[in-house]
Amino acid sequence: MNNTLSSISSALIVAPYQLNIWFGIFLWVTGNLGSIGEYARFYAYFDNYIEIVFTAICPPVAVIVLTYLLIRSVRNVIQRQIISGNNAQVATVAYRSNLEQMDSRLTSMLILQSMIVIITYIPFAAELVYTNVTQN
Predict the structure, then answer these.
(1) pLDDT tens for residues 48-72?
(2) Staple partner for 132: which of 48, 49, 93, 110, CB 3.0–4.6 Å?
(3) Domain limits for position 22
């Protein structure tokens, strides 16, 4: 698994350089010196909006999705624990309330964390959008 993570990490590090190389080859192959400025402006425009999407919008969305998936997974595990514990009826009530209490605490913690991430990203995203939109 560590090899997979390191290969993904190295691929993510190399990707911007490869994109720049392909873009440079594209500019070189087209050969239109008069339109290189147009391509550069398009690339700058495209780069600004890609930066907005991946830097300001994706992290909060990823946190929200991962929080939802984690809450759903924990509830599924707790449901399986409660169902498997139904054989001992007396101990099940105390066990169920303890699991539901842990589920409630974990859910509130994850929702609070998601809200903090979203609240802290709003100023950053607004500033990034404003800067990129108002550039020449």
Answers:
(1) 888 888 888 888 888 889 999 988 9
(2) 48
(3) 2-135
